[in-house]
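Final report, results section. Input specification for complex C-07:
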Amino acid sequence: MLRKSLFSLLLAAGIALAGNASAETKVGFVYVGPIGDHGYSYQHDQGRLAVEKALGVKTTYVESVPEGADAERVIRQLASSGHDIIFTTSFGFMNPTVKVAKQFKNVKFEHATGYKRAENVSTYCARFYEGRAVLGTIAGKMTKSNVVGYIGSFPIPEVIRGIDSFTLALRKVNPKATVKVVWVNSWFDPGKEGDAAKALIDQGVDIITQHTDSPAPLQVAESRGVYAFGQASDMKAFAPKAQLTAIVDDWSAYYIDRVKAVMDGTWKSADAWYGLKQEMVKMAPYGDAVPDDVRKLADEVKQSIIDGSFHPFQGPIKNQKGELVVQAGEVISDQDLLGLNWYVEGVEGSIPK
Amino acid sequence: MDFFIPAMLTIITAATPLLFAALGEMVTEKSGVLNLGVEGMMVSGAIIGFVAVHSSGSVTIAILAGILAGAFMAAIFALFVLTFHASQVPTGLALTIFGIGLSALIGQSMVGIAYEGIPKISIPVISAIPVVGTLLFQQDFLVYLSIAMVAAIHYFLNKTRAGLILRAVGDSHDAAHAIGYSVVRIRFMAILFGGAMAGLGGAYLSLAYSPMWVEQMTAGRGWIALALVVFACWRTMRVLLGAYLFGGISILQLHAQALGIGIPSQVMSMLPYLATILVLVIISRDLSKIKLNAPASLGRPFHPSR
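Structure output:
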């Protein structure tokens, strides 16, 4: 009798202790590339460091996780080792995240740039296309050959949104300009990205922009004397003369917000799509080559997006065939933007299926 | 087609790292050792070369450092394979993973550092010739070296006694051992050479091709080099052809995309692999020639007591 009550007392104490030990929130991050890419994954990691600094929680990260079966293993491992919220930061982690989320109902998942949600799966994305509109404006003013190069990774809606937004803004200030697109089928391969930049420049392009994660295209631009835009982080160190500006992803505020919600118990599945206004997308300082009038115009475009008077996808918009698909005064809805799979007028070539 | 010369120049830079690594691996395999650690040795050469050029500013030191890094990793491989008689395939794979991880660790402080690349050398008079001059005689030092190595290795393997001994070891290590040649020593030197060349190929990547350091910047080129050796049927000239074919089509498919040619980009990305395999397999379809050139003892561990 004494033994039984002693045992149950110890058990209760043990459970109480264990309960206390897991009271501290653990946050996990899964990156598709190395944090040393100095681009996309690097910025997510900066967000993670901001969370640690602001909230003092324990964070873990796993980098260079390939999209696919390996991702599922990594996410599952994080979920089963006591993490309360896990951020999976690439589109290709979507299905693994949803799959693991079904089996770990009390862990919260935040998936970047995807569209599948569940009770414990939230999605978040940045309106990079708002930044692209600013880039397109600058490019339109500064191109002399009227051909601009775009290095794409994979033909998914997110990348096509960027191309379309860029081209619309480009042709708004320079109706004669066109965009050449080269796909490297990888988010991160400095050699191939550099080669793609060289191929575009050899074909007469004088401004390069990219939706891939390494600074290689900027290096090539610098050595060839053309201009370029940085991607996901300020890449000026690699191209002091060539970088005109860059789109900088800033995930810190959102990450701190969501981890706090988990700590307070107010976390709910949602879909966050923030842009310039909420400072999830920021622009890097202008390069020395950007003249004052172009800076002014770019700032105006940026401000008009922030205060809502201009939407990068407001009509009139023509598709590649020249048909008017969006009337003046209309705006492409968020829903349609999420599945965007057609080029606007001014983009050369067709989307690989 | 006025992008022909610039495209060719890009093709030469794309093919050179593959050429270095494939040549080295070919020599290693000719001695009968299958070294799957090429990718790890390449990436080690890349990071050490970059660290060396950043801290010393001297290109020569950087190139030497890259070579030594590759050779060092190869020495570890040789230790396991030759002394401990470990199985060559998993050891090589382990070394690839080790090399990638170690280079990432060393390279953590090197990310974000820019470097303008090694200078091009123009050979005085002949580089003024209109098309050929720019293409052939205005390259950086390592490109010239890679072509020189093709000639040197071809001569060494086919025309010298030492090359003959190396091939003998690769074809039948028992017979070579019976005649009195030190199989272990010859294989050790071949492995070191292969590692050194892989390191050199990697150093070319971080010094000339895309002059920076990012993790895993070799992006699978070591594996491509390995495949090139097999598809080239262990013949030096075919390795040269394969490297330039692969590099060439990799670049041309990007140009084709930029021109707006309507083939899906995923097919374009496959083209270098498909074309290289196709061409080399067709040239090498003589089965008897394959048997003649493939080292018969490839991958088999050497136990002198048996």
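The domain at 4-114+131-218 of chain B is CATH 1.10.3470.10 (ABC transporter involved in vitamin B12 uptake, BtuC). The CA atoms of residues 170 and 280 of chain B lie 22 Å apart. This concludes the modelling results for the funded period.
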